[in-house]
Amino acid sequence: MDKRVHLRVQGLTNSQVQSGAYALILAEDGPRRLPVIVGVAEAQSIAIALEGLQPMRPLTHDLFIHFAEAFSIELVEVFIYKFKEGVYYSKLFFSNGKHERRIDARTSDAVAVALRAGCEIYTLESIMQKCGIVIEETPEDEEEKAGEKENPGPADDRGKLTEGLRIMQRNEIEERMEQAIREENYEFAKLCSEELQRRGREEKA
């Protein structure tokens, strides 16, 4: 029997095989990775969810989740069940407590929604064997990771950006964050979001 494999979203990277696209990296609890090619819009939506950013207005995937929540429908899991001719096929499993429904979806959309819903992602062992790549960590990789934890590197640039944001008006920060999201500068967008959240906490205090 083809067993199921639990996956987590490891991140995004530029696609090496398709210009203007991104590779979504899904990882098992082991050395294998499942790369999925996604478009720019889907990559942006996934990155926003990974960074925990809050767009000024809901994106399509946000709207999908809000709609489901409004009618007490829970996204239980995402299941990548088939790979054919270079395309991954996925299903969304929903439940309202009484009935369950399965909806076909593009894998990029399914992952973007799953990240917002906080649900699990699964695929099949046969797909991992056929499409997965094995990433073997060398001792040098482990030393590099340890070094990054001990020496995260200079935070001067980040500190300067944070100080600059603190003297800006709220509407300026919101405009900068929107621009950063459009330009896919998610690191700066996250700094803007953190500053807005900090101000919100101070206003409530």
Radius of gyration: 19 Å
The overall strand count is: 8
Strand content: 25-35%
Major sheet details: 8 strands, mixed
With helices defined by DSSP (H or I, 4 residues minimum), what is the helix count? 8
| Shape descriptor | globular
Report how far the terminal alpha carbons are from each other.
Answer: 57 Å
Order of H and E elements: EEEHHEEEHEHEHHHH
Helix content: 40-55%
Taking pLDDT < 50 over at least 5 consecutive residues as the criterion, the unreliable ranges are: 148-156
Q: Return the structural class.
A: alpha+beta
Mean pLDDT: 85
Order of strands, main sheet, comes to 6-5-4-7-1-2-3-8
Task: From the structure above, extract its key features.
8 strands, alpha+beta, 205 residues, 8-stranded mixed β-sheet, single chain
Can you offer a commentary on this structure?
This protein is of the alpha+beta class. Strand 1 and strand 2 form a beta hairpin. Helix 1 packs parallel to helix 3.
Walk me through the topology.
Layout: E1 4-14, E2 22-27, E3 32-38, H1 40-51, H2 60-70, E4 74-84, E5 87-95, E6 100-106, H3 107-117, E7 120-124, H4 125-131, E8 133-134, H5 139-150, H6 156-166, H7 170-182, H8 186-204
Parallel strand pairs: 4-7
Antiparallel strand pairs: 1-2, 1-7, 2-3, 3-8, 4-5, 5-6
Helix pairs in contact: 1-3, 2-3, 6-8, 7-8
